Structures are given as structure tokens and as C-alpha cells.
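Format notes (please read before filing issues)

Several people have asked whether sequences and C-alpha cells are stored in separate files. They are not. Every record keeps both together, in the order shown below: the sequence lines, then the C-alpha cell lines. Line labels are part of the format and must not be stripped during preprocessing.
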Amino acid sequence: MKNLTFTLFISLIFFSCAPQRNLVYFSNLPKGSNDIIQSAAQLKLQKNDQLSISLTSLNTEYNVLFASANANNSNTPINSKGGFRINNAGNINLPLIGEVKVEGLSLEEAQALITQVLRKQIKDPYVDLQLVNFKITVIGEVNHPASLNVPGEQINLLEALGMAGDMTVFGKRENVLVIREEDGVRNMTRLNLNDKDSYNSPYFHLKQNDIVYVEPDKSKERQVNSNNTLLPIISTCVSAAAVLLTVILR
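Then the structure lines:
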């Protein structure tokens, strides 16, 4: 009986030594909460973005020129959908028109500007503009790490994790790293996805070329390096159990 009690006691001490983890996103959000959260910031065009611009007008020559330019710029895998690249000066080079500054504009603003420029040469142009190389990368403790093409204009961190198969049970939801490069400056921030306030971070809504890294927790490290980390923990827990048991049996 004493041996059974001792075994159960040792097991209890050992498992109590393991850290408890919160696997629930936004776990501090009260039930029935109607918290106001910020909407995603509007996407702004950057250098090296690739724009697909299609033109529909009564001038078939212009229509063909735009269609041809889109096709001719699709010679690399990332630009397989074609388009016009924003150069280092923040401009795109349009057929028969020349360079137009679009860096820093939203897609709607760029579309309106291009339409305005074309109206000077052709009547009633209709311009459709899309960003074709909106890409993010999700790595670390997710089920399907990958570089992901984003079909729309917006994506948030939860959507990106969903596209990557969600975090594994070893992913640290309280410490997700987002790496972002803007104007040649690389910024990094960590978000706690257990905390509802992370939704209001400007890094929760991802931008083109962002990198998301999900850090593994200590239990994953112990599995990988069991000889270096697991044995000392077991030894510490057993020692603590032995001391407590000695005190109890006296």
C-alpha cells in the first residue's frame, strides 16, 4: 500500500512540474462580449508590387497594348499572372503614357489615378487593377509551413494560420513573431494570441511579404533534446517529492 501511495505521489509531483499552457485564442475575451475592434488598415502599394492592369475602352489599340504588356511581364513564376512592376522610384510604366506614381496609394486610389490619366487620351476608359504578388510566409510550429499567395487585398494573422493548417499543439500562441519590411527597414513584433487586445495591433492585419514565425514551446524542446533537458527536470521533481515524502512520513 505504501509503495502504491509512493508511486502515485511521485506521479502527481512529476506532472505538476509540467507547465500549464493556454491553447485558446483570445481566451480573455468575456463570453457574450461586444468589444469594439479596429478594422484592417487599407492596403498601400509598395515598391516591387506587381499590378495586373486591364483596360476596356472603345480604343481597341490601347486595349491590346495593355493586354500585351501584362502578358510580357509574366516571365517569372512570381509574376505568372502578368502585370506591371512598381519600380524603385514608386512608379509603373504604362504603354504610350509613361511612368505614373502609385507607391503609397491604395488599389482604389491607383485605379482612379490611372483612369484619370487615360481619360486624357481615350474616351471612357474602364480600368481593372489587381495586386497579383500579395504573398506571406508562415513558418515554425504550424501544420503546413509555406509561402502563401493571398487572393484578396486583406488577410489577418488568424486567416494566415488557418491557411497554414493552424498551429500545432506545441506552438506558443502567446508569442507569435511577425516580421515586416517597409521602406528598407525591417520591423519585428511579438503578438499574444491568447489576449484579445492583440487584434488591435497593426501587425495582426498582415501586409504583403510579411513573415509569421510560430515559436515552439519548451515541451517541444524537451522532446527534441530529451537527454539535455528532460532528465534534469525529472531529477528535480523526484528530489522534491522525496523531500516532501520524508517530511510526511516522519
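For reference, the curators noted about this record: Residues 12-16, 74-80 have pLDDT under 50 and may be disordered. The two ends are 17 Å apart (CA to CA).
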